[in-house]
Model the fold of this input.
Amino acid sequence: MIDLHTHSTASDGTLRPEELVELAAERGLSAMALTDHDTVAGIPTALERGEARGLHIIPGVELGIRWEGGGKMHLLGYYVRHQDGGLGERLGWLCDRRRERAQRIVEKLNAAGIQISFAQVEEIASGQFIGRPHLARALMEAGVVSNMGEAFGRFLNPGRPGYEDKEELGPEEAIKLLKSVGAVAVLAHPRTLKLDAAGLARCVEELKSYGLDGLEAIWSGHSREQMSAYKTLAKQMNLLVTGGSDFHGENKPDIKLGSGRRNNVQVPDSVLEALRERRTPPAPSGR
Ligand code: AMP
Ligand code: ZN
Ligand code: FE
Ligand code: FE
Done:
């Protein structure tokens, strides 16, 4: 089995990249993609540990997409050339905007009488990437809330006193960025778009015109029926079927690495072969 959707402490997971790889090896996975949000900072450590443990690591990334459809659109990139300067610059820009957003959220929470500091949030985040789960942790540590769900429900969800939008790339730019670094571009968890069948087909058609390669049909938050409907759609549109748990460690404790929620995620090794065929190998470097 393989898992093509995981998050480490480089974004908003709670295991360090090397711990994540160790867990994957213990679970008996043969391959794992590290797909942190908006950063590839965890990739070198994951590759190194994967090599030591004989586990194939796919360098990946997950991008939030600006989209007017109402639901949430995320794209996954697989086999990204993670050392590419252009990619690093664009991701760095996204993380800089995230940092400013986290500062604005802290100011809003302070104005609402909640005493947390940006320095605390930075310490919890421990890297370039800051997301709402880090703000949720700060609220928990301050004793304002007792769990993540309460932090989002009372303060961090849209319409709550600590909500701020984040900067995102548009779908065309994001897919072209992924393709420019040799990656296979996949629409993550189609369910979160909140479209009916016809709307989803139109949306996927548009993404395909920008270069989309696949659909993440298998995902912890999909029902059996949704998984099979997304597989059918992928087949009709000549797209790859991929899958992963969306493991975040203790930030989403009901989701298990390699198996999702109550074993609902089972991604066969054959998905990896299809993915590898679709990637653009790096151009041969001159001497
Ligand atoms: P951000 O990208 O900074 O807006 O943060 C979004 C992340 O927050 C998502 O990736 C989820 O992992 C996490 N998240 C959203 N709602 C909740 C929730 N109710 N409980 C735990 N994590 C959540
Ligand atoms: Zn996340
Ligand atoms: Fe996602
Ligand atoms: Fe994810």
